[in-house]
């Protein structure tokens, strides 16, 4: 655990802004001028933007695009940046079952963890069998945190908190067990952040699907995990959502654009590809910044190796879970057949 009083561990807001060379950009974005809008449309870089956000917020949430390689490439660049471990204490992820938190703690601290112990972290979540998280980028995420921690003193290492409810699939035998065991996924994530992060005055990066990290609309109660945290504490998180828009085609990939002081603030969320937007909802109401990963249609998928599912025990368990859940998923088509890595271009919503 990190020492909260450590001067080495903490960077001040001024120090982070200086380290990222971002002071002038932040000041310009705040006044909402035409020059600031133009600068924002040119785009800052993702890593620098996240570090700036941590100078002002203890919770920074990134809406993860499940299975998208470029999104995780950006996340790995963030994790590997030498400044990151200086401003972040914890990372909360959707793609991990909290039942295995002791396993993950040992693993990211550098302990010897057998693969058969580690794999259940992502294979046994509430999202199985619809999503096994067997795509290599998820395991790579955990292994990158372990590598980042390796040279650091024990009290400065980043902790990975598994945010999915602690379901024990060996005890799930009926559909009724599903509702009992799975519980409130967003509520569980919120409780993890409240208990393990905010109560300890720590700072956290939250990596969850976009709907889980959006701000609640004015007057809305409940909502995703981040919205619940904000409602229960009054503490504002900084929310980054990934999406594409025709106005951004000239920008380089991994550009980060603030909503404040730019056209993004009032743009309808339905105009963005990859973003789970709704007609009539302005982007600035649900997020603070947009992560632009590149031209729509140029994204790729991270796909699991079909050979994984030739393991008879694992395959039988996926089929058992499918029967319990009653899901219409075609396991053979989804997991045992080769698929193109080209990310399917989502259709534009009709408003």
How would you characterize this protein structure?
Keywords: Lipoprotein, Signal. Residues 51-152 form the Haem-binding uptake Tiki superfamily ChaN domain. Residues 1-27 form the signal peptide. Pfam families: Cofac_haem_bdg (PF04187). This is ChaN family lipoprotein. The protein is an alpha/beta fold. The protein has a single domain, classed as 3-Layer(aba) Sandwich (Rossmann fold). The protein contains 16 helices and eight strands. It has an eight-stranded mixed β-sheet with strand order 1-7-8-6-2-5-3-4, with helices on both faces. The termini are far apart. Mean pLDDT is 87; it is low at 1-43.
> Order of strands across the biggest sheet?
1-7-8-6-2-5-3-4
Number of domains: 1
* CATH level-two architecture: 3-Layer(aba) Sandwich
The CATH top-level class label = Alpha Beta
Poorly predicted ranges: 1-43
**CA(first)-CA(last) distance:** 49 Å
* Count, helices: 16
Q: Per CATH, what is the topology?
A: Rossmann fold
SSE succession: HHHEHEHEHHHHEHHEHHEEHEHH
Radius of gyration: 20 Å
Kindly state the number of beta strands.
8
Major sheet details: 8 strands, mixed
Shape: globular
What's the rounded overall pLDDT mean? 87
Helix content: 25-40%
Estimated share of beta-strand residues = 5-15%
Structural class: alpha/beta
Pfam families: Cofac_haem_bdg
Protein name: ChaN family lipoprotein
Keywords: Lipoprotein, Signal
Concise synopsis of the structure shown:
By secondary structure, the chain is of the alpha/beta class.
